[in-house]
What we know:
Blueprint: H1 9-19, H2 24-29, H3 41-51, H4 58-75, H5 80-101, H6 105-128, H7 148-160, H8 162-173, H9 180-194
Helix pairs in contact: 3-9, 5-6, 7-8, 7-9
Amino acid sequence: MSLTASRTPSALDADLDAGRGDELPALSRFSLYALPASETSATIHARRALMSRKGVTVEEAARRARERRREAGKMRRMDRAAWLFVVVGTCGGALAWRGSALSSQTMLLAGYGLLAIALVALLARVTRTPARSPLDAFYLPDELPATAEDIALLRRLSSEDPELEVVTNAWWRNQAPIRKSDIRLALDLRRAKLG
């Protein structure tokens, strides 16, 4: 009878485990099925969002902002106040015409006065509203470049978390600047890990 046939299966498993005891801790860290208790769904989602970050170049962000500015320019050249001045001017013109038809000097002057005030207000309103607003007003909050305080916060978070440091090191080499959305992704990962 062979030596292995006389041994029980549990004894064989114990011998195998003793032979690879030094390999098991390293393998268990990377197991997809044996996640540590600290890995929550929030941590996994935050890590996935951080890893799938899409850097937006300066030119791409400016193109998007120009498109939003063009769409906004189509929508609101004449706002409600401008239309109200047009209606008041029309009423003033009608009042002046009625005063002329009735030979009423008071009604004629009131109509011309109302028409003049409405036209001056309309011209002031239309000329003070720029046809092309500054491009900075049309960047989304996540498209704005990170400030010095944001960069300092990202450096501090990276120094505290080795996983985040590996990811952000790749960001520094990328041609797309670090934006507010990137800081938000790093903060989301930290919040998910803490809590």
